[in-house]
Amino acid sequence: MPAPMFQKIPRKLEELLGHDGSENFTDFLNKAFAYSKENVVEQVFERFERRLSEEINTFRVEMKTDMANLRSEFKTEMAEMKGELKGEISLLRADMYRLNSMQIKWSLATMVALTGIFALIVKV
């Protein structure tokens, strides 16, 4: 138990109350202030707990909102990247098709030319 708050009362009051009365009055004051102190500590603790709970709830709401915003931004950016990637793939396919058709044309032109050259060589 903590040290009593009042250990001695003024001399004139002690004379008025007497020795037993002053001890009883000191005990009464110590108990009253101890109870008051406990009560104040409980109230402060309850207020702190309530305030902490409110702050935690506010923080949770903010975090949920921030996470939802981030998720939305992420989805938007992913959709944009997907569109860009599809566009790049389409360009690559078009380039490959163009290169492939040029290669086929050159191969056919080379075959025709070689056929003509072989025909000339065979005649000679």
Biggest beta-sheet profile: none
Structural class: mainly alpha
Give me the Rg, rounded: 48 Å
Beta fraction of the residues? Answer: under 5%
The SSE string, one letter per element, is: H
Mean residue pLDDT: 90
Transmembrane segments: 106-122
Organism: Leptospira semungkisensis
Protein name: DUF1640 domain-containing protein
Keywords: Membrane, Transmembrane, Transmembrane helix
Write the layout of secondary structure elements.
Layout: H1 11-123
Give a written overview of the molecule.
With 124 residues, the chain is mostly helical. It has one domain. It is built from one helix and no strands. The longest helix is centred in the middle third of the chain and has 113 residues, at 11-123. The N and C termini lie far apart (128 Å). The model has no long low-confidence stretch (mean pLDDT 90). The chain crosses the membrane at residues 106-122. It comes from Leptospira semungkisensis.
Give a brief description:
The chain has 124 residues and is an all-alpha fold.
List keywords for this structure.
mainly alpha; 91% helix; single chain; 124 residues
